[in-house]
Write a structure and sequence with these properties.
This protein has about 100 residues and is α+β, with helices and mostly antiparallel strands. The chain contains 3 helices and 4 strands. It has helices at about 15-25, 65-75, 75-85; strands at about 1-10, 35-40, 55-65, 90-95. The chain is globular, with a radius of gyration of 14 Å.
């Protein structure tokens, strides 16, 4: 299994409408056939010094294997999301684990 966790920090000047469009587009990634698990969230209200709550959205996906992850990376839905919305975020951090 490959766990793919992506944290997005959106730009400060993003409007509520743009933020909603970003979230809606992220949601379409669940439709990609190689995605075995999908979770889209925002920071939980947990106040501990070791918990980072500065990001805007968290995307967590699980894939069967590295080959499935590679299919996801070039899938038209993933590419469309990146093409349209990469200008919305200041920062992105990705953690991949097996």
């Amino acid at each position: 299994m490959i766990a793919h966790h992506v944290l997005f920090w959106l730009k400060a000047d993003i409007t509520a409408e743009e933020k909603n469009a970003f979230q809606k587009s992220l949601s379409t990634l669940e439709q990609i056939e190689v995605v075995k698990f999908f979770h889209l969230g925002t920071p939980a209200p947990i106040e501990r010094t070791v918990v980072d709550t500065t990001y805007t959205f968290s995307l967590f996906l699980a894939f069967e294997d590295l080959a499935a992850h590679d299919v996801y990376q070039v899938h038209p839905l993933h590419k469309a999301f990146l093409d349209e919305f990469r200008v919305f975020f200041d920062r992105v951090v990705i953690y991949d684990a097996q």
